[in-house]
User: Which sequence fits this backbone?
């Protein structure tokens, strides 16, 4: 087989697919056929490249040129320039913010430069639906090594010494967890891959499953060997149809190749994996609820002990790990615990995948060594805040986590340091917020989420989260009162201590960190009826500055409730009684006038008398 | 079954493998408040009133005693100022959910000194049903029919027959009524069959006084008259 | 015919009761919702109390016990989408379709639901219509996108 002289790697993760990347792929293939290059250039659909903000993405290999925002219209030029004439096509290259020249090579781009791809080592360079690609890149050699050269105890030791900690959020030492399950006396054991990824704002697990499903399969097989399990389940949340499809396909291909099933690599080890789909319940990310769901029951957690490792699925010992945890296993076995432990911090080894989203320029998926600072993540990799606004906070850990204020941006990201700041690592969602985000609104948002997702079994969570939301709702609508902060704190602590499972135990965290780091903002809402970020609608008044209004009539016409009076030469005035705070006038007032002001926490000036409503015009 | 030795309130207690901390405590006369627990049913661990302090590895944690399996060498504290505070907070959440329940108000005042919760839930979030699940478990485990279950989730959870209309499988035995601590559940809500007899009002009465041994299966059924109807309708026994 | 769908799905899962949730999902994918007669059929065929099936159907968001329109519009209100204008998207769609989340338009064309995270956070805000993801979408464009779905 003659090797291709070039590969065009088209990102086909859900994000880029939604952005027409499959159409781009087809157009590329058509153009290549038209130019009679199909024997020389191969177009490959790969998993998520991570730089979602710039999709659709096409990478030229071996030149390493990074093309972004590729459209079907530009493909003929791209093919003509780069593939026929050998001149990389500048127009589709990436040019950062204020730079003058584009950066051709992927490895030179800041977004990628600072990353270290271990879990995502195959991202963007293999076709996840072709098992041969994975195998060609040392795939399944770790499983072979484990089965033929190592004992189950040896595998567990290696994973323990590597310092790998559960990437689902709890951060428990994986090797120790495996050890407990392997020691259980029951011969029938299960392992589970938790791909429920319910944290809103997080898509690491989805990307791993879509980019490199075999890394997860291989990791699970190694784990099953170490623990003594015969069956594995991958529990994928319902909202991820493409990830589900890819892992199911990969499992089938592994079975066809004898890498799953009976007597793998001619040893006594047999292992099968089944895929189970979630059905829209965040609580099913919790281990006992997840198992209930696999068993066909409602996803209601139960108290632990007994732990899943002692009594899990159908009463048998079960080891549950997150997608990212499993995907780390093959490379640790291949390159050794010492190598892995050389990356990261003292207690947090290895790398972590983060979804860097929110108000940054470069939103996407990044894998970085543990211990990298938030500053580097937001500014060097993330390219800073969009629109040049000011950073306010970074939210980590999803609904179980908290807000890290801008003062703590030098924080190295690892399990311990985030916990010290009052938050948690969680599954890896990093939501960047700027001065236009209100922390009280964000806390309320998270409580709306947990109230909705609470299973309802235990009273503290079911009632407590709603009670907390009620108080926050009142505060954001100007009905806050003295004593609210103390009551919020007390209820929050009670919900934390009394709830049955992790959902309830961590649901109050956004409120607690908001009180800890943003108390001034919270007090402003309560004491002054003021929202400094101008987010909480009921606390904002709109006022047209008579000195700036040029009576252009735009806001008057656009007001949905006809609350503005005025005319062509009459300054516009908002009737505060009729105003619904929709903000339309603020948005439509031409920026050169900027006459509409938002007021919060201050009284609205009374309207100017009728005679004085003459617009100030500049003399020519 | 192997014997397990644990420590409860400083006392050494002997237990067997299958017991929970609550079983073990009660076996030596230590009382722990409960709400969603009944000895005839699988424990549920939801009301959180039976929480105790577990000392393990130098650290203290709170856990529901009705579902915590006994372990060799476990150290448990069933009463302390912290625990009283915690149970009081639990009762406050329960009362916020069911402020009109005479049963709950009585217990809240008598056992914890609470007359009213400090926060009020919206009317649609309140109900005399405290979602303890005793009726659901009784119908499933004692009667074996499963005519009712929890539907929806979170604050919207309720106990209903399927499709929120008359159940075709309810036999009107009233076991659920006898189990219900607040008197919320009514057979008329659940069953399609005509209900002809009187059901006793369960308020603050001790429901185990109503327990009657079934002539058919010798298990405990609750409610004085219903097992007779059940026996007559289904087993032909008078 | 619903009974054929039920039989086919139950057959596919070998009548294994623990695969209940998977079965209900497959059935719903074909019928677009879970009607009462269908749940009764499953209950009878699988020997599982109807109560349990109804409870599952009402607990999990993926299931609908009410008829759904021809097209499903899912507005993502995950955290990234929330800070990038998800609420404005939701309002624009509510205004256009004249329904609230969970409801179906009078002509049975659209059902709107809110979902919290479809995992496309890098392209916030996102809506999903049927199986199609639309990222970085402005309210006006979202409204326009609806025209493609009859």
Assistant:
């Amino acid at each position: 087989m003659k090797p291709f002289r070039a590969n065009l790697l088209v990102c086909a993760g859900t994000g880029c697919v939604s952005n027409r990347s499959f159409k781009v792929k087809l157009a590329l293939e058509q153009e290549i056929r038209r130019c009679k290059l199909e024997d020389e250039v191969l177009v490959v659909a790969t998993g998520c490249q991570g730089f979602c903000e710039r999709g659709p993405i096409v990478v030229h290999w071996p030149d390493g040129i990074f093309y972004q925002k590729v459209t079907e219209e530009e493909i003929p030029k791209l093919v003509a320039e780069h593939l026929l004439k050998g001149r990389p096509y500048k127009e589709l290259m990436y040019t950062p913010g204020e730079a003058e020249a584009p950066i051709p090579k992927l490895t030179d781009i800041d977004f990628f430069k600072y990353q270290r791809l271990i879990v995502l080592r195959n991202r963007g360079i293999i076709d996840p639906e072709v098992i041969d690609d994975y195998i060609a890149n040392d795939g399944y050699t770790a499983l072979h090594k484990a089965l033929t050269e190592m004992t189950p105890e040896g595998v567990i030791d290696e994973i323990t010494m590597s310092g790998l900690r559960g990437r689902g959020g709890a951060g428990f030492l994986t090797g120790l967890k495996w050890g407990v399950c392997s020691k259980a006396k029951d011969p029938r054991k299960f392992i589970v891959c938790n791909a429920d990824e319910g944290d809103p704002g997080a898509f690491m697990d989805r990307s791993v499953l879509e980019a490199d499903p075999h890394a997860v399969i291989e990791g699970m097989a190694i784990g099953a060997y170490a623990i003594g399990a015969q069956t594995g389940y991958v529990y994928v949340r319902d909202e991820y149809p493409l990830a589900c499809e890819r892992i199911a396909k990969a499992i089938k291909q592994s079975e066809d190749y004898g890498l799953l099933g009976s007597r793998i690599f001619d040893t006594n080890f047999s292992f099968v994996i089944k895929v189970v789909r979630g059905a829209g319940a965040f609580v099913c990310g919790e281990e006992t609820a997840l198992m209930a769901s696999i068993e066909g029951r409602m996803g209601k957690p139960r108290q632990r002990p007994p732990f899943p490792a002692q009594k899990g699925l159908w009463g048998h010992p079960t080891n549950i790990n997150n997608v990212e945890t499993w995907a780390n296993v093959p490379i640790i076995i291949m390159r050794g615990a010492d190598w892995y432990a050389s990356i990261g911090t003292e207690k947090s080894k290895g790398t972590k995948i983060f979804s860097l989203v929110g108000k940054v320029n470069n939103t996407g998926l990044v894998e970085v060594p543990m211990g990298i600072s938030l500053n580097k993540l937001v500014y060097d990799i993330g390219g800073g805040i969009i629109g040049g606004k000011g950073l306010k906070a970074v939210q980590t850990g999803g609904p179980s986590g908290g807000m890290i204020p801008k003062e703590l941006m030098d924080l190295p990201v690892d399990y311990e340091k985030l916990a010290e700041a009052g938050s948690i690592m969680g599954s890896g969602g990093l939501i960047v917020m700027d001065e236009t985000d209100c922390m009280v609104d964000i806390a309320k948002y998270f409580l709306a989420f947990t109230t909705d997702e609470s299973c309802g079994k235990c009273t503290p969570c079911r009632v407590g989260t709603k009670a907390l939301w009620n108080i926050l709702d009142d505060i954001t609508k100007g009905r806050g009162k003295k004593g609210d902060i103390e009551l919020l704190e007390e209820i929050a602590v009670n919900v934390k201590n009394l709830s049955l499972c992790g959902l309830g135990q961590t649901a109050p965290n956004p409120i607690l960190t908001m009180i800890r780091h943003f108390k001034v903002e919270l007090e402003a809402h309560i004491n002054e009826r003021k929202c400094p970020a101008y987010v909480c609608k009921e606390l904002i008044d709109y006022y047209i500055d008579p000195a700036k209004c040029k009576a252009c009539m735009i806001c008057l016409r656009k007001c949905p409730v006809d609350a503005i009076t005025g005319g062509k030469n009459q300054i516009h005035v908002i009737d505060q009684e009729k105003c619904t705070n929709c903000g339309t006038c603020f948005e439509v007032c031409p920026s050169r006038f900027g006459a509409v002001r938002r007021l919060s926490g201050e009284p609205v000036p009374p309207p100017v008398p009728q005679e004085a409503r003459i617009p100030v015009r500049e003399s020519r | 079954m192997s014997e397990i030795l644990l420590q409860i309130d400083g006392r050494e207690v002997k237990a067997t493998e299958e017991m929970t901390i609550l079983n073990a405590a009660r076996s030596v006369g230590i009382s722990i408040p409960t709400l969603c627990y009944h000895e005839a049913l699988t424990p549920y661990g939801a009301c959180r009133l039976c929480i105790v302090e577990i000392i393990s590895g130098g650290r203290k944690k709170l856990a529901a005693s009705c579902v915590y399996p006994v372990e060799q060498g476990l150290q448990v504290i069933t009463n302390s100022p912290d625990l009283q505070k915690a149970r009081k907070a639990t009762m406050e959440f329960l009362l916020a959910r069911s402020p009109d329940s005479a049963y709950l108000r009585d217990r809240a005042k008598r056992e914890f000194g609470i007359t009213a919760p400090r926060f009020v839930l919206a009317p649609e979030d309140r109900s005399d049903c405290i979602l303890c699940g005793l009726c659901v478990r009784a119908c499933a485990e004692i009667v074996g029919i499963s005519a009712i279950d929890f539907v929806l989730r979170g604050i919207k959870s309720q106990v209903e027959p399927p499709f929120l209309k008359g159940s075709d499988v309810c036999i009107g035995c009233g076991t659920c009524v006898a189990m219900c601590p607040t008197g919320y559940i009514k057979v008329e809500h659940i069953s399609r069959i005509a209900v002809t007899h009187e059901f006793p009002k369960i308020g603050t009465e001790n429901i185990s006084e109503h327990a009657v041994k079934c002539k058919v299966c010798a298990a405990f059924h609750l409610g004085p008259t219903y097992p007779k109807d059940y026996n007559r309708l289904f087993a032909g026994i008078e | 015919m619903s009974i054929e769908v039920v039989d086919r799905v139950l057959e596919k899962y070998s009548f294994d009761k623990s695969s209940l949730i998977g079965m209900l999902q497959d059935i719903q994918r074909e019928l677009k919702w879970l009607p009462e007669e269908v749940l009764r059929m499953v209950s009878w065929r699988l020997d599982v109390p109807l109560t349990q099936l109804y409870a599952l159907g009402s607990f999990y968001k993926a299931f609908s016990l009410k008829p759904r329109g021809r097209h499903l519009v899912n507005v993502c209100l995950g955290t990234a989408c929330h800070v990038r204008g998800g609420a404005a998207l939701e309002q624009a769609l509510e205004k256009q379709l004249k329904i609230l989340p969970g409801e179906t338009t009078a002509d049975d064309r659209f059902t709107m639901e809110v979902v919290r995270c479809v995992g496309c956070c890098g392209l916030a805000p996102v809506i999903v219509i049927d199986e199609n993801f639309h990222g970085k979408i402005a309210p006006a464009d979202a409204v326009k996108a609806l025209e493609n779905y009859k």
The longest helix of chain A spans residues 459-476.
